[in-house]
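Re-run with default settings, no changes from the original entry. Doing this only to confirm the output is reproducible before filing.
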Amino acid sequence: QTKIQQLNLGATVDKDVTHDYLYSHSSNIGGGKSSLNVIESITDNVQIDLENGVTHNIDLSRTHNGDGQWPDSKNINNVKLLVSKNAVLEEFNIIKGNFIPHMNNSFKREPEYKISDEADRKKISFWMNTIPKSYSEIKLKIKSTDGYRKEEGIITYSLLIQKQPGTLSYPYTFNITTPEGWKFIGTDGQNYLSIKTDLDKDKLVQVKLIPK
């Protein structure tokens, strides 16, 4: 087990608080194989604050490309977003889809979510159910201070994006904006970066900013 953990193959939730953190975990129920036909996509728009932390504007969508014929079915799915323990959920906006809790009534009504702790992380959990040939979408606004450091006129920000083991890779877009009057080190005055990737493994993003 120790060797497996050293190779990052043990599905352990990372607890390093020197990085900001995001981990999207899905659990399907119902006995079908619909998860094989569902493509998840995340866009994380990050605004770096001048004095303390960042604001995430996360757009999470799940597209069901199946036909609903057995063993395919409606995708009944519980999403757990693990974020930094000190993170604060400010907005939870349902755009499209069925977010009604499937098995219990412990979720907050209108909107349907609950917040708890798991593995030294804050957990935002909700049901996100998607019918064949359709998609579900949600937007969340989260503030966080982990991974943010301002020293000697330089702002450093790092984010660890952890992938759920055993799942297919999916599109992940990371857009980051500096405070007004700041730029990214190593660029010609840029204050905006867009990184598009497939989340096929855990990934660490780190940027450094200086005044223009």
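The first helix runs from residue 2 to 6. The chain has a mean pLDDT of 91.
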